Amino acid sequence: MIRLFTTLIIALFSMSVFADTKGKTLCVFGDSYVRNHRCPQEETWHAKAADRLGMKYVNCGRNGSSVLYDRTDEGFGPAMTERCKALPDTVDCLVIIAGHNDATMIHDDVELAKFRAALSDMFWYLKGRYPDARIGYVTPWHVDRDYFDPVIATIKDVCATYGVPVFDAEKAGGIEVNNPDFRTLYFQNRGVRDTAHLNAAGHDRIVDAGTEFIKGLMDSGIFYIGGSEGRLACMLRMPGQLVDGKCPFVILCHGFCGNMQGALFDDISAGLLREGIGVMRFDFNGHGRSDGRLEDMTVINEIEDLKQIISWLRSQPFTGSISLCGHSQGGVVASMTAGELGYPAIESLALLAPAAVLREDALRGDLMGNRYNPHDIPERIPLPWGDLGIGRRYVEIAQTLPIYETAVRYNGLVLLMHGTYDTVVPYTFSERYHHDYDSSELVLIDGEDHGFSKDIAGTAAKVCRFFSLHLEAK
Predict the structure, then answer these.
(1) Least confident stretch, 151-160, 254-263, 265-274
(2) Cis peptide leading into 344, omega within 30 of 0?
(3) Apex 112 CA angle, 107 and 114, nearest 5
């Protein structure tokens, strides 16, 4: 009976079964990449993907539209931060395709910072309006002009922060936007003065990968277990083949105001599964699909959340060893949990830009640039964007949180990765972790930011290599 139960559970979690997309609504929102400029919308890859998946297709593209800039006087309408308020009341999947026009119009880093803020505001609005919808972002092409690469990097970084999966259609379709011969074949107007708009043949290069991206967004493999503030939304994936009915697992822990989704965790998850390692993702309390309010979230109750995840996973018949991987605040939670549970309860540990700065920020009275009196903490401290905030208890706990003192009790293998251009959490905090740990490897990535947006794939590959080599050796 136990063998039969184990076989059924393994089959349940190892199947890559996507939710039934038939009859669901796909809304595609953005600029002329969506509207398709002067050609029929039916020729776009996203319209064809919706048809393949049996989804209702709503095209909310507008030629010339921009995330940041109001272009009403030019005939292109208001900024997308305003246009998003006129989207349909109900959507099941929202795909955003934008940034080309912003990259064309941005000419300095001040404007780039405004673009980042506008994108953040738009995500906060959309996530609040569509709490149950799947949201994804498609980046523009890397046109050979000054601010295209910075704009694309900013999009990836903001998407990583908000847990929005990113689809690189340029890479998926082999779009050679800077090659005039390629544009002649695959762009509208034979590519003459056009580095934005694909023709029907160009869209056909993307439709297969684009369909899989949308299917992935609609994947319904979410289940719930009990946490510190109610239910925790979880997603478990297992490799195709197990050894003696078991496999090692890595639990992924997201950061402050994030969730289990996002390009970085997507790439890490896919890489681990290829190496025969199972993956458990979840949303901390007050985040994503889990119960609770952000105002009630603290590092301590996130540690309790993680312990509940570990306890549940350890009780399953298919679980071998358990390792942890945490990004930003999730890195602090993972490091302290590993310190409390020790080795070999936690087999190995990867910390990506661990946000140990949160204690110093609390002592200074700084919440992501929003200042407050740390000696007279307000009941609620608003975030500098959107309409959410954290509670007084978060700061009270953070001010005395024994981060390094607890983390250093872990004596298993540790990988630390941090970008030298991280302006959210300086890399010196990973250097402190490295100094205190007995067995750690520190990888500083020159020029990389907090979300590892410059090279998400490369970062994920290093994380997967660390776990693969260590767990295989075991």
Answers:
(1) 151-160
(2) yes
(3) 120
What's the pLDDT tens digit per position in 4-40? 434 444 444 433 334 468 899 999 999 999 999 999 9
User: How many angstroms separate the CA atoms of 406 and 442, rounded?
Assistant: 19
CA distance 158 to 338: 28
Quote the CA–CA distance of 87 and 126 in Å, as a whole number. 10
Quote the CA–CA distance of 48 and 36 in Å, as a whole number: 13
User: Cα-Cα-Cα-Cα dihedral of 167, 173, 179, 180, to 10°?
Assistant: -110
Q: What type of residue is 262?
A: G
d(CA 384, CA 269): 31
**401-432 residue pLDDT tens:** 999 999 999 999 999 999 999 999 999 999 99
Radius of gyration for the chain, computed over Cα atoms and rounded to the nearest angstrom: 22
Main-chain phi, psi angles of 169, to 5 degrees: -65, -30
pLDDT digits (tens, 9 = 90+) for 40-70: 999 999 999 999 999 999 999 999 999 999 9
Q: How is residue 23 written in tokens?
A: 């009859």
Number of other CB atoms surrounding residue 437 within 10 Å = 22
User: Has this prediction a pTM greater than 0.70?
Assistant: no
Question: 3-class SS at 443?
Answer: strand
Element at 104 (helix H, strand E): helix 100-105
Query: On the CB side of 128, how many CA atoms lie within 13 Å of its CA?
Result: 14
Among 249, 279, 266, residue whose Cα is nearest residue 212:
266
